[in-house]
């Protein structure tokens, strides 16, 4: 997976790297994010039901590789996350909104401004892609489906 081209005015990978984006920062983001996710009353149970306690280090390594590939173009991720997410019957827009709220909070807390903005832009694209693919998999009608609204994180 190589980094997607930036939209006009959007932060670039080069800007984020200049601010300090590297694999160590990505790992810190992933670990902090999942600390918050695991404690969250809405999405925590979804993760706990699918990631056994002893498998969290492996899961976080996989997600770190995903973000490293997405932001730095490392090609270290080779998974296929869509089928696993399509199999989660309880996933709804509320779960995606919360995931994004926690993610925005995490990167804003840990990253310089342009790096956080890059993470946020990519996370919103990932969430919309997953949301739409899951809806299509379920046979939902996608015509006029509005994008996700933002939820604030406490």
From TrEMBL:
Gene3D superfamilies: Globins (1.10.490.10). It comes from the Bacteria. InterPro entries: Globin-like_sf, Globin/Proto, Hemoglobin_trunc. Keywords: Heme, Iron, Metal-binding, Transport. The keyword Membrane does not apply. It holds the Pfam family Bac_globin. This is Group III truncated hemoglobin. It comes from Salipiger mangrovisoli.
């Amino acid at each position: 997976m190589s980094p997607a081209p930036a939209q006009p005015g959007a932060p670039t990978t080069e800007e984020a790297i200049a601010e300090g984006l590297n694999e160590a920062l990505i790992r810190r983001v992933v670990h902090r994010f999942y600390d918050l996710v695991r404690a969250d009353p809405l999405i925590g149970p979804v993760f706990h039901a699918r990631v056994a306690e002893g498998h969290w280090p492996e899961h976080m390594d996989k997600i770190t590789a995903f973000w490293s590939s997405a932001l730095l173009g490392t090609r270290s991720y080779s998974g296929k996350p869509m089928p696993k997410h399509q199999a989660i019957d309880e996933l709804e827009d509320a779960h995606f909104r919360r995931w994004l709220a926690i993610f925005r909070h995490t990167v804003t807390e840990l990253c310089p401004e342009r790096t956080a903005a890059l993470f946020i832009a990519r996370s919103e694209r990932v969430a919309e892609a997953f949301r739409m693919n899951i809806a299509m998999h379920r046979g939902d009608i996608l015509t006029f489906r509005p994008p996700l609204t933002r939820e604030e994180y406490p």
